[in-house]
């Protein structure tokens, strides 16, 4: 049985998210469903240097605490590639000469409408982004070999779901999971 929306109302909205409550009929009958919709798609960048190290940023998240993540952010209505380039520069102080679109994914698809674009960046150059990193709330930029990043996921050091999924996209593209 498909889902049917009988009524909907906006509960909250700001420049980044829209929260609605839907009266629905689904496989188990009638109910209420809360949905968070991102106002713009997000972008995630797996930046891989010439030594096969992945760029990570470390920051304190209000919701979950300390987090190690790949550079990412909202597209703010920009083309996803332009947004990915901006986020990599702002968060890590890195530019790239090669960009590969790895695909799209959906965050928290049981409660959210949150499309995300994943990119692989190669041919990296470092810049000075200390000011931007501070504005972004980033405490440190770290570089881990790809295999060490996967080991950190297995050990519970990297727990951000989108980072894990983006690394899976990159691992598939790079032939690391064969």
Description of the molecule:
Pfam families: NUDIX (PF00293). This is NUDIX hydrolase. One of its GO terms (molecular function) is hydrolase activity. The protein has 2 domains: 4-38; 42-174, Nucleoside Triphosphate Pyrophosphohydrolase (Alpha-Beta Complex), CATH 3.90.79.10. The chain is 25% helix and 49% strand. The protein has helices spanning 80-92, 130-136, 146-155, 161-174; strands spanning 4-13, 17-26, 29-38, 42-47, 53-61, 65-69, 72-74, 94-106, 112-113, 115-126, 138-145. The strands form 3 sheets. Strands 1-2-3-9 form a 4-stranded mixed β-sheet, with no helix packed on it. Strands 7-4-10-8 form a 4-stranded mixed β-sheet, with helices on both faces. It has a 3-stranded antiparallel β-sheet with strand order 6-5-11. The N and C termini lie far apart (38 Å). The mean pLDDT is 93.
The helicity comes to 10-25%
- Kindly give the count of domains: 2
Mean of all residue-level pLDDT scores = 93
Instruction: Sum up the overall morphology in one term.
Output: elongated
> How much of the polypeptide forms β-strand, as a percent range?
over 45%
| Pattern of helices and strands | EEEEEEEHEEEHEHH
Output the CATH class name of the largest domain.
Alpha Beta
Strand order of the largest sheet: 1-2-3-9
Supply the number of helical segments.
Answer: 4
Helix-strand makeup class: alpha+beta
The CATH architecture designation of the largest domain is Alpha-Beta Complex
Question: In this structure, how is the largest beta sheet organized?
Answer: 4 strands, mixed
- SS elements, strand count: 11
Distance between the termini: 38 Å
GO molecular function: hydrolase activity
InterPro entries: NUDIX_hydrolase-like_dom_sf, NUDIX_hydrolase_dom
Keywords: Hydrolase
Organism: Microbacterium phycohabitans
